[in-house]
């Protein structure tokens, strides 16, 4: 029999994270475009990010009808948070007075690139990148490259750069609880053997 889940955070009721999720306002609008394969994942950090931001939105899909027309109108300066040779350091936008909409693909690198490939209006957006040398707290997945962060961590880092250092760190509380809960469920020995790289104790 399937476990009952919280309709808000989608976690099992016994592990609901809603009490830890803050509600924060931001001048920057955040639009997360999540690949469908990530939506039911136990470690769905994009959903936590969207719940925490009053000016945030999560959309699930591979293609997003109507998005191209939406991106062509409005007062926001729109940027894609995604690395690339032409990506601008995000800190350079912190000095820009115009309101910003940050669009964040969510999925594995391959799936995120797929979202860009099938949505040309996204691929055409100017790209921004986070600083180099960042370290993820995501201890349950091996980073595919140096400096790779979970979606929630990347959004927190981006908003802190744009709107004030540490202002959005409260979003990391449910993320840390999520990781700790997964480690507890698998057991310390299994975690150390498969994720921590250390000897069993």
TrEMBL record:
**Which residue intervals define the domain DTW in the entry?**
2-187
InterPro entries per record: DTW, DTWD2/TAPT
A molecular function (GO) held by this record is:
tRNA-uridine aminocarboxypropyltransferase activity
Q: Which branch of life, at top level? A: Bacteria
Give the keywords, sorted.
S-adenosyl-L-methionine, Transferase, tRNA processing
Question: What GO biological process term is on the record, naming one?
Answer: tRNA processing
Tell me one Pfam family matched here: DTW
Keyword Transferase assigned to the entry: answer is yes
Give the EC number(s) under which this enzyme is classified. 2.5.1.25
UniProt similarity note: Belongs to the TDD superfamily. DTWD2 family.
PANTHER family for the chain: TRNA-URIDINE AMINOCARBOXYPROPYLTRANSFERASE 2 (PTHR21392:SF0)
Q: What is this protein called in UniProt? A: tRNA-uridine aminocarboxypropyltransferase
In which organism is this protein found?
A: Azotobacter beijerinckii
Its lineage opens with: Bacteria, Pseudomonadati, Pseudomonadota, Gammaproteobacteria, Pseudomonadales
